[in-house]
Amino acid sequence: METKEILLSKRNQVTIPKDFIPTGVSLFLCEKLDDGAIVLHPRVSIPANQKYYWTARWQKGEKQASEDIKKGRIRRHTSVGALVKNLNLSTEK
After folding, report:
1. pTM metric for this prediction
2. Which of 25, 55, 18, 31 minimizes the C-alpha distance to 43?
3. I want to staple 27 with a disulfide (CB 3.0 to 4.6 A). Which of 10, 14, 45, 48 is the partner?
């Protein structure tokens, strides 16, 4: 366990050392233990308009899409017309 000494400011504020803060975390749950210790638990804050991305269903689709890309199961089209034509051919089979 790594420890560092930090100073409490006049307004009861502390500065957490940068190397103690996990990447992408800006929210912490502060807990005061019975022995007086103060523990900060990092919380990942997900904006409400992005919560769908973290659902199990969406993550499963992301995994499938990544696998398709990795295995070359993708097609590129030069225009919307070419895409529609290809889709129409696919449905006619």
Report:
1. 0.46
2. 25
3. 45
Condensed to tens digits (0 to 9), the pLDDT of residues 7-65 reads 999 999 999 999 998 887 888 999 999 999 999 999 877 777 888 888 889 999 999 99
**pLDDT tier for residue 93 given thresholds of 50, 70 and 90:** low
Q: For residue 1, give both structure tokens.
A: 């366990």
Q: What sign results for the dihedral spanned by CA atoms 65, 68, 72, 74?
A: negative
Q: Give me the residue spans of the domains in the chain.
A: 50-92
- Angle made by CA atoms 33, 6, 26, in degrees to the nearest 5: 75
Phi/psi at 9 (nearest 5 deg)? -80, 175
> Any idea which residue has 């992301």 for tokens?
62
Terminal CA-to-CA distance of the chain, rounded, Å? 62
Among candidate residues 63, 31, 29, the one with its CA nearest the CA of residue 45? 29
